[in-house]
Amino acid sequence: MEAYKQEFIEFMVDSGVLKFGEFTLKSGRKSPFFMNAGGYVTGSQLKKLGEYYAKAIHDKYGDDFDVLFGPAYKGIPISVVTAIAYSELYGKEVRYCSDRKEEKDHGADKGSFLGSKLQDGDRVIMIEDVTTSGKSMEETVPKVRGAADVTIVGLMVSLNRMEIGLGGKMCALDEVKETYGFDTNAIVDMKDVIEHLYNRPYKGKVYIDDTLKAAIDEYYAVYGA
User: Is the peptide bond before 73 cis (omega within 30 degrees of 0)?
Assistant: First the structure.
């Protein structure tokens, strides 16, 4: 496994973003692990997060894009810090854009978006924290494509949970790719997480022991792609 993936897994654990136990997800599934990007709360954490996203995007998609789009709410700070990191790491100015949950009907920036307006010809990279079932893309992709004549280059998430999507046949990220016609990638997937943490102490603690590994295996027997 690449060193940056190992570092990112440890970064998620250190930040309290990747947790293990029993959690009920937005999809209704009961999962033995949970990733919450809302746990990145300090300046240094957000700076590092933006750098990991920027490096992964640069590695997978190169520099041929104009806008980072982060769906509300968690995608908003991620798109902002990634745009900053991209400028610092690669010297390229990219704009950020996000949608609003509620349309703003007053002021100079009224409408359904905040940040940069989407323009005809823009090449857009979507940014999310995690894709479990792919449901969020159902809401977001039509908004982005309806705002201007744009090309969605791809989607980058921090963690691929490796679960079946809404169609129940393939990984949610693969389903998004098939449904909407753009590439999908993750900084790390759960296979990487398990490989790195299973029965391997990190800072004196084993996060994935035999009991938890059995629970994860049982979960994937039902929901795994």
Answer: yes
| Marked catalytic residue, from 5, 55, 74, 106 | 106
Estimate to the nearest angstrom the gap between the alpha carbon of 115 and the chain centroid.
19
Confirm if 61 and 123 have CB atoms less than 8 A apart. no
CA 217 – CA 224 distance, rounded (Å) = 9
Average pLDDT over residues 126-134: 80
- CA 8 to chain centroid, in Å, comes to 13
Query: What is the reported pLDDT for 145?
Result: 96
Instruction: Please indicate whether residue 106 is annotated as part of the active site.
Output: yes
Q: How far apart are CA 202 and CA 147, in angstroms?
A: 46
The crossing angle, in degrees rounded to 10, of helices 3-14 and 190-197 is 80
pLDDT for 74: 87
Residue 102's pLDDT band (cuts 50, 70, 90): low
Catalytic residue among 26, 55, 74, 104: 104
Backbone angles phi, psi at 208, to 5 degrees: -120, 100
Residue ranges of alpha helices (H) inside the chain are 3-14, 43-61, 75-90, 135-147, 172-180, 190-197, 210-223
What's residue 107's pLDDT? 46
User: To which residue do tokens 């610092």 refer?
Assistant: 88
Of 105 and 89, the structure prediction assigns the larger pLDDT to 89
Closest by alpha carbon to 80, among 115, 106, 36, 132?
A: 115
Cβ–Cβ < 8 Å for 17, 48: no
Q: Is residue 104 among the annotated active site residues?
A: yes
Bridge-based pairing state of the strands 123-131 and 151-160:
parallel
